[in-house]
Write a sequence for this structure.
């Protein structure tokens, strides 16, 4: 059955799809370079040192989202919302205050993590090190600021300036530097790799901010608007932070938990399997980068048909891509993991379990983005966070018994339930069907008063 696309939606979907393809191109290159980085590091390090790197990177990623205090999501929602209402000055203040908050919070968390590492050092076993905690501390600020700058520039429809510095520049420089140092006989430890990552990312961020200023995009931090910004948007930012933290936590906490409850070698294996499974979400993530401000704009303008059309496009494009990658894992998962080293191929069952859970991300579509962009962030925290939180507690019980396979199985089950819950919520409470069935809801969607 062929579905006719109304003329008023054709241009919208074409624009969204073409920009998403551009975003996908960057993300495919990013995935390749990221994979190359992990392969290079795992091949040039011992399994223990690679485990230190994986643990530190996962910890820094979670803390960087905490340091962002929800500002990267808030700016995607508030910039189009305020500009649609004609309030250009407030939109600019949101950008400046969000950047200042991100930088300040990052420095505080980095200092606290470093203090924790110093206190923890006397309790280390002989021959062990806390340097990966210091490496993670160095990485918090560049990761948090990279996430925020990307959101600011995407909100201003500057996709290439938003993504190229971090997703291409940094991810190209890191493996090249590691290979160059290795050719000189310098083998990096896990903490060394974390520190090098931080230095290179800060360099690419400086270049990004310089180019953005030259192109007259709002991006620079200012302290003055921070108090007024927090007074007006602090509650929203807190809930957006919880939403972003929950998603990041579910993608990284398993690695940390495995490292704490088993060993760092198992943490490295789980890290590689999870990052490999994450390749399935490439197109979904790429298109969500584009549609987030579009969903906010059309929903708050009351254009429900356009909002529904955008979410349907995202769901189907992401699902088809994910299905192809999942099929590839079924056939060649062990070979793909062996690229990191022969011992990592034993994680193929972990890979398939995690990948099956992520397949439901694509089936249920951009539910999280829709909830965040339409003012339902509290419900997202309660539903998704509650289910995944229970899953995390179950993992604590399961990991000592069934190891990494048990951790992956619980993650898969929790994610399926959580994604289904928020998709049903979007349909019943927001009026947007984010799942694959949303394509049939476009014609019946009715526009609403602007909010």
């Amino acid at each position: 059955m062929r579905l006719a696309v109304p003329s008023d939606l054709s241009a919208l979907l074409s624009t969204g799809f073409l920009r998403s393809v551009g975003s996908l191109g960057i993300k495919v290159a990013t995935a390749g370079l990221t994979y190359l980085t992990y392969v290079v590091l795992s091949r040039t390090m011992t399994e223990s040192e690679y485990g230190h790197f994986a643990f530190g990177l996962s910890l820094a990623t979670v803390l960087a989202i905490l340091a962002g205090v929800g500002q990267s999501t808030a700016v995607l929602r508030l910039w189009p919302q305020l500009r649609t209402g004609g309030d250009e000055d407030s939109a600019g203040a949101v950008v400046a205050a969000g950047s200042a908050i991100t930088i300040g919070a990052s420095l505080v968390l980095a200092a606290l993590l470093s203090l924790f590492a110093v206190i923890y050092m006397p309790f280390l076993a002989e021959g062990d090190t806390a340097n990966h905690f210091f490496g993670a501390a160095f990485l918090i600020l560049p990761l948090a600021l990279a996430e925020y700058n990307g959101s600011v520039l995407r909100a201003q429809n500057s996709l290439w300036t938003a993504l190229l510095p971090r997703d291409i520049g940094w991810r190209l420089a890191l493996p090249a530097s590691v290979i160059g140092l290795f050719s000189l006989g310098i083998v990096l430890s896990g903490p060394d790799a974390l520190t090098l990552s931080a230095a290179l990312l800060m360099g690419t961020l400086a270049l990004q901010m310089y180019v953005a200023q030259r192109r007259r995009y709002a991006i620079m931090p200012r302290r003055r608007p921070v108090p007024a910004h927090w007074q007006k948007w602090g509650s929203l930012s807190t809930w957006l932070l919880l939403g972003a933290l929950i998603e990041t936590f579910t993608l990284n906490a398993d690695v940390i938990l495995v490292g704490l409850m088993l060993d760092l070698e198992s943490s490295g294996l789980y890290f590689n399997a999870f990052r490999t499974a994450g390749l399935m979400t490439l197109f979904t993530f790429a298109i969500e980068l584009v549609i987030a401000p579009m969903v906010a704009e059309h929903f708050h303008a009351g254009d429900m048909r356009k909002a529904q059309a955008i979410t349907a496009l995202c769901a189907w494009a992401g699902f088809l891509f994910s299905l192809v990658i999942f099929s590839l894992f079924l056939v060649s998962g062990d070979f793909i993991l062996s690229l990191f080293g022969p011992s990592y191929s034993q994680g193929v069952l972990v890979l398939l379990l995690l990948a099956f859970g992520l397949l439901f991300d694509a089936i249920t579509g951009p539910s999280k983005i829709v909830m965040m962009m339409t003012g339902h962030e509290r419900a997202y925290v309660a539903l998704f966070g509650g289910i995944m939180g229970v899953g995390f507690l179950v993992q604590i019980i399961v990991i000592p018994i069934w190891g990494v396979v048990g951790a992956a199985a619980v993650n898969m089950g929790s994610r399926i339930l959580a994604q289904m819950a928020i998709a049903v919520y979007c349909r019943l409470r927001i009026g947007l069907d984010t799942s694959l069935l949303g394509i049939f809801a476009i014609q019946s969607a009715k526009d609403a008063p602007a909010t």
Notes: The mean pLDDT is 87. The chain is about 80% helix and 0% strand. The chain has one domain: 7-441. Residues 377-430 form the longest helix (54 residues).
